[in-house]
Design a protein that fits this description.
Oligomer: homodimer
CATH superfamily of the largest domain in chain A: Type I PLP-dependent aspartate aminotransferase-like (Major domain)
Shape of chain A: globular
Number of helices of chain A: 18
CATH architecture of the largest domain in chain A: 3-Layer(aba) Sandwich
Number of domains of chain A: 2
Strand order of the largest sheet of chain A: 4-12-11-10-9-5-6
Number of strands of chain A: 17
């Protein structure tokens, strides 16, 4: 095995050579083989990657990380038989595909924004109506149609949407090894459940941030997977803490071998809102290399990276001037640093298009994606073909990569405005002597630390947990719902401080200000200020 | 515990009292509480069932059937917190729901058939265009809209589609206990994977038909779940064989306790096409009661029950004259016989609306559905909201229950025609001295037994498997793909006979005849006839 490439070299080279740009996509597609347009063709991302990818070394092998369940998965017998369908003139009585005449949908249309008119009002007045019919492929109108979308599909997704996410992945992350693959998923929660099944046996530990997305932990525990919490600061996961947990792992005391999987939300972390800097990620990656840990980066908030917070009286920071500048402004993902292929990136459309779509994708090495797809085809099979078609019409046929980046820049500015509204409200209404926070750089969440040791209940023996509960109910009774920090605490993490999570994603601007006002009043009343 | 009710009594009473009919639905809805129309409301089927359901006894408890994984599942912390949202005037900064202005879809439309013009041509010419916009609920235009569909949902599904499937379940199956529930699923393959996780630990055996849907077995094996095959005849699963396997179960020899889960495809079984009669189902249910076995009935082909096969020269049998007659003509489901609540019915829209929807549902007792939903909310969450909305627009707002039954009757006649085409082709083209079959009464599959002992290769020592492979390739080389029977054999089942599976669901009428002609020629050449 060759020595691991230095992370810094890779980052420098990726930043300067910039192999695939938005402008290069038409040429890339023109050079590729025609995209298969039939029912459930078996394809993978290799068909859609630029030649530049193949100049890179291959990922390492990960045979040692798969679970007993995952190792025993085989290809689907019936999907294997589909290879005979390529024989010209063959009539198939083999598969169980229903005939499309029995799908009672002839046409589907969606009304969507046209760049740059992204608001609902602009869309209603001047949006585009995108239409797909059953026979569009046959009639040469499109490379994807309703007849195909309504039928069975492959686990990796339809070639048409898989191409878009593969190109997008190369544009944004440009992984430093050659054999990466994408696979569509029916949502990130599904993906995480499958990843746990793929990488962990009952009794295994995984590493998680000490405060983490409660559902991610709740997905792991019933599988018999335990959590080893890792310390955090304002930038999230601490590499020193990660190294310490792994270096001092006591197999006998823990009753389990050293964890080989790290789950992290690097950008706009849920619940803390923390974003790991590039330097932080490199340090974490090096610790992962040292202990041979596989990294799962769950990144729903990656494109909710906002403009810098300029303080209460400053002018807003203008949006990025170009797609290139926008992409350059994004913090590097673990995937973009991943010289070993030890990262599985979980991507989501939930925060940038729609959570109700239940459609996202993952990126990892070919070996890992192959195992993931085997799990998928024996459970959810693939995200809904109807959604894949609608997303293809919007992302590929209507917006293209450039329009999608414009949409993401628009979202950045929208979320920046929401975040700023909440920061201003906190500055105006929260009692500064007991509440403190760091303005979040990404995501939907604001993490407010409250100094529970100043609570009058402490004198009468109330615990930290009781005080948190009291404050929570006082806030609810004063008309504002926030989330309790303890809901997000990883099992086994110590809990010295008290936090509340507030989201700026949903309420109106006025609502955000009013809600923080109410929370501030509840805090003052609780703390006798 | 009270003694089990006699299956016969229940069936007789359900058949005569007929508590909920299509015509009764408007009155039922009028008496119910208003359906919740917000984002992700927590509801269950109880809200939509008729009063008649509550006159029945409750199901048994099934605490003893759940797996270690399932028993340890808890409710989602964050979903629990949503109950505070009911406080009037409360501003939520609690959840992580994105604001709908950031979902770039203002409107969705589908063009669908209007009763009775069900063909694609009629739909293109005179179908209805159903439209949903973001603000339909706010504007009083509908009880379900795009804004809600695009956001997060609950595991049991949106109330709007859950109501339809609950009513449909009562209309068709009218379960003989009171506390049954429905839960939407992202497809039956997903449901089966989750059911295995819910009911089985590694090392457990499940009971399956000796020839079964290969993917169903491939889903079980990596979970460490082994298969105990049960014998079949032309009506499918044999109760005597089931009883024998269970009565003679040797824990020591098998290294596992007696199986407590039976997986069966009772109607139009895949691959054999066999349909269990009402008498057969009652006998199987009684064996399940005797050995306390929980039954999973996987029923994608239930509404592909066809008109009786009348032979080559007979007139086609006319369609059912009314909805009542149609419902009466359906073979009773296990669910409709289920006095104990020991049945989990897996329902699918794949064969009757679209497999690409990845949307179906399950029916079982409240206790079982609750455990199922806990698995779902920690993995796929729910089927796509976009699909749920489109199905609601078609099934509920446009067709209603009556129109959906008309569609199902239409499908029956279409499949009857396809089945008849294949039967006629088999009668014309297959060599009767080596090929035999039973005309299927339901489903998509025709199961052809070929007498491999008459193959000339036998003399030169070829095995059954080698002859099967040779015949398969001879057919492919002659331009027809059929499926090999051995692909569907349950692990451990003996294999004395040789079968091929041919589907009449996909190819055109001419294609079916030509394909069977080619298969017949290949057989003749192979067998030297």
């Amino acid at each position: 095995m060759s020595p691991p490439a230095a992370v810094d070299e890779i980052v420098a080279s990726a930043a300067t050579s910039g192999p695939l740009a938005v402008e290069g996509i038409p040429a890339l597609r023109a050079k590729s083989a025609p995209i298969p347009t039939g029912v459930a063709p078996a394809v993978n991302s290799d068909m859609f990657k630029s030649q530049h990818c193949y100049t890179k070394p291959k990922s390492k092998r990960w045979d040692h990380v798969f679970s007993v369940e995952s190792k025993s998965r085989k290809s689907s017998t019936l999907k294997e038989a589909a290879r005979y369908l390529k024989n010209p003139g063959l009539i198939s009585l083999g598969g169980g595909l229903p005939s499309p005449e029995y799908f009672p949908f002839e046409q589907i249309s969606v009304k969507v924004p046209t760049v740059p008119g992204f608001t609902p009002e602009e869309t209603r007045n001047s949006g585009a109506v995108l239409t797909a019919s059953k026979g569009d492929v046959r009639e040469g109108k499109s490379i994807f149609d309703l007849e195909v979308a309504l039928n069975y599909g492959q686990a990796s997704g339809t070639p048409q949407l898989l191409r878009f996410v593969t190109e997008h992945t190369e544009l944004i992350h440009n992984p430093p090894y050659s054999d990466w693959q994408c696979c569509l998923t029916p949502g990130s929660t599904y993906a995480w459940d499958s990843i746990l099944r793929m990488l962990c046996n009952r009794g295994d530990y995984i590493l998680m941030e000490e405060y983490t997305f409660s559902s991610a932990q709740e997905t792991a525990l019933p599988l018999g997977v335990k959590v080893a919490p890792v310390g955090m600061d304002g930038q999230g996961l601490l590499p020193e803490s990660l190294d310490e947990v792994l270096s001092n792992w006591d197999e006998a005391a823990r009753g389990a071998s050293k964890p080989h999987v790290l789950y992290t939300i690097p950008t706009g972390q849920n619940p803390t809102g923390a974003t790991q800097s590039a330097e932080r990620r490199k340090a974490v990656y090096q610790v992962a290399q040292k202990h041979d840990v596989f990294i799962v980066e769950d990144e729903p908030y990656y494109f909710l990276q906002m403009q810098p917070y300029a303080g209460p009286d400053s002018e807003p920071v203008p949006p990025p001037a170009s797609h290139h500048e926008f992409i350059k402004s994004l913090v590097p993902s673990y995937l973009s640093l991943d010289v070993d292929g030890r990262v599985l990136r979980v991507e989501s459309f939930s925060k940038v298009l729609s959570p109700g779509s239940r459609t996202g994708w993952i990126v990892a090495s070919e070996q890992v994606v192959e195992r993931f797809a085997r799990t998928l085809e024996a459970s959810a099979q693939n995200p809904s073909g109807i959604v894949q078609l609608v997303f293809f019409k919007l992302l590929d046929e209507h917006w293209g990569h450039a329009g999608y980046l414009d949409w993401l820049i628009n979202l950045r500015m929208q979320y920046t405005g929401r975040r700023d509204t909440m920061m201003h409200a906190c500055e105006n209404y929260l009692p500064g002597d007991i509440a403190k926070w760091i303005p979040p750089a990404a995501g939907m969440f604001h993490w407010i630390e409250v100094d529970w040791k100043k609570h009058p209940g402490l004198a009468s023996g109330k615990t930290r947990g009781e005080i948190e509960e009291e404050v929570f109910h006082a806030a609810v009774n004063n008309g504002v719902l926030v989330s309790r920090g303890s809901w997000f605490r990883a099992a086994g993490a110590s809990e010295e401080n008290m936090f509340f999570r507030a989201t700026f994603a949903a309420a109106s601007s006025d609502g955000i200000a009013e809600a923080i006002h109410r929370f501030g009043d509840a805090l003052r009343a609780q703390f006798g200020l």
